[in-house]
Design goal:
two-stranded parallel ribbon; Ionotropic_Glu_rcpt; signal
Amino acid sequence: MKSSRFIKTAFAFLILSSFHTLLTANEDPPYKEIHVGVILDMGSRVGKVINRFVIKGISDFYTANPHCRTRIVVNTRDTKGKRLLALSAGASLFYFCC
């Protein structure tokens, strides 16, 4: 008698968990991520300031607009003061984001 009760309980649990999976499978994700590439010389004061401003600006925007369903993800690359590294960082950001 106990085993048949256990089987019924397990079957009911299986059915309920299946319904929960079906109901939550069609839900939209909470937000969509938009990847944005930023290439900066992080060794310079200007690069550090720009990086802080970009991150703070995005943070302030989402604080003021919590209902937005998109999120900007900043992908920062450091050029280390070299032009060739800036070019390769741009190429890697292009392939990473797309």
